[in-house]
Amino acid sequence: AARGHRVMTISPRYDQYKDAWDTSVAVEVKVGDSIEIVRFFHCYKRGVDRVFVDHPMFLEKVWGKTGSKIYGPKAGQDYLDNELRFSLLCQAALEAPRVLNLNCSKYFSGPYGEDVLFIANDWHTALIPCYLKSMYQSRGIYVNAKVTFCIHNIAYQGRFAFSDFSLLNLPDEYRGSFDFIDGYEKPVKGRKINWMKAGILESHRVVTVSPYYAQELVSGVDKGVELDNVLRKTSITG
């Protein structure tokens, strides 16, 4: 934003953020087998449009106790519907630049439009490049949009049962990008889907938080947590 770019951040509405107001904009997204309605809350701070995705999957689970309940009821335990929660977030994030008419900046006004760059952070937003291609660019929408996938912590990759691929509502052609053999004993070894792997393969560029971390992730199986080979093939910068 300080360099003159128009910037929007999009995150779940985990709490009653006092400065964020209801935009009254709602969209429908398909999550698993159901159609869900999400709303957008917004505030403008330090030159950035801060958008919060409102849905019971987020706020009703957490209610302000964000320190330990964002991803599960307690540390080390996931919510059973995390795949659905973050599928919803990714789809809402792709809708926001097109449907929100934001006019808080003295330099910009109206919707962001379709010529945008999405920055997807960690496994929770790894479906963005997949949905961008399958749901939008295949229909002539967001034709020039790109996705940069940023890895903050490779230890958390979004590994789920292989049969769960059907929950994501993606064409079969994307199945290979998710296909992953988990070599760790816990919780279960074997074939799974890996959201982070798909995010790496389907994004236009892959980055991480520092040059040192980028080098570390491709230095071996342990440091890359079984994704080092994928990162070496696609390249990663910090």
From TrEMBL:
InterPro entries linked: Starch_synth_cat_dom
Chain ranges of the Starch synthase catalytic domain: 1-233
Protein's GO biological process: starch biosynthetic process
GO molecular function: glycosyltransferase activity
Pathways per UniProt: Glycan biosynthesis; starch biosynthesis
Pfam families the UniProt entry points to: Glyco_transf_5
Name of protein: Granule-bound starch synthase
